[in-house]
Specification:
This protein has two domains: 129 residues, Rossmann fold (3-Layer(aba) Sandwich); 111 residues, no CATH class. 41% of the residues lie in helices and 15% in strands. It contains ten helices and nine strands. It has a four-stranded parallel sheet with strand order 4-3-5-6, with helices on both faces. Strands 2-1-7 form a three-stranded antiparallel sheet, with no helix packed on it. The two termini are 29 Å apart.
Length: 273
């Protein structure tokens, strides 16, 4: 990326729907946990592809199931993904995921194990994955303006230095990118507890603030209904405590540093939205 951000560009892959990614993955995406082994077998057969196993996709219903679908479709639609092979235990849900990803225009093919069996599914999916990988390897990067860059931040293993060093450094980058219309994402619902009012003050409009507080309060209500005592067993984490943090409020003040000093909260997204 060039230093003058007013004319800065980055090198990426422009996808069929116009969005730009900085990676070029061919992913093997299981619809459910029963398809994990087949997906991993395909990725093992075709080095350079990436399987994304997970423990979900069965005995789910209602909003939980819809969240599952949105998550898988969103993963396939990500501009860092060039093409997708979807494998599920049956055709119905598999096709739903395929159709959702296909809306972006990118290459995607689905296979149902019940219709073909494990071995034939792996064989056929491997053939398609190989073709997709060859195709993706021939794609060329192009320069794109910073306004088309999406940056998402997520911390890990916070300690006493995070709020003083690493997180403010990320926030400084956000402050430099924000005036140039880059899309900057911050997802820390559980880890801003005690500092949520500081984020609310940064919301651009009353409507955005109301939606932010709705999302945060919804999380808090869930905790209140199901907690055994408090958040002490999960927030701060054991690793946070070993690193010197003592309370979730202390952790929150460090986490919030990642959104910089100048950025406003322009919108709020739900899970997998």
């Amino acid at each position: 990326m060039s230093q003058d951000l007013s004319t800065a560009t980055f090198s990426g892959y422009r996808r069929e729907n116009g969005r730009v990614g900085v990676r070029n993955h061919v992913i093997i995406l299981p619809v459910d946990d029963l398809a994990n082994a087949a997906c991993e077998a395909v990725a093992n057969n075709i080095p350079g592809t990436m399987a994304l196993p997970h423990p979900y996709g069965r005995l789910q219903f209602g909003e939980d199931l819809e969240l599952h679908f949105r998550t898988l479709i969103g993963t396939g639609c990500n501009p860092n993904v060039a093409a997708v092979v979807v494998i599920g235990i049956e055709n119905g849900w598999t096709q739903k995921i395929v159709d959702g990803i296909a809306a972006t225009g990118k290459p995607v093919t689905g296979f149902g194990i019940e219709q073909h069996g494990d071995h034939e599914t792996i064989m056929k999916a491997s053939k398609v994955a190989k073709e997709y990988l060859q195709w993706a390897s021939e794609l060329k990067r192009e320069e794109a303006p910073v306004s088309e860059l999406w940056v998402s931040t997520k911390c890990g293993e916070s300690d006493t230095t995070s709020g003083c060093g690493a997180n403010p450094t990320v926030g400084n980058a956000f402050d430099k990118l924000y005036p140039h219309k880059a899309t900057l994402l911050f997802g820390e619902t559980s880890e801003i507890t005690g500092g949520e009012h500081l984020v609310a003050e940064r919301c651009r409009t009353d409507e955005v603030r109301e939606r932010f507080m709705f999302m945060f309060d919804r999380y808090q209500d869930l905790i209140d209904r199901f907690k055994t005592s408090d958040l002490s067993d999960s927030q701060p984490t054991k690793g946070n405590i070993e690193g010197g943090l003592t309370t979730i409020e202390e952790k929150a003040l460090g986490n919030i540093q990642k959104i910089g000093k100048e950025c406003l909260v322009d919108g709020v997204l739900d899970k997998a939205e």
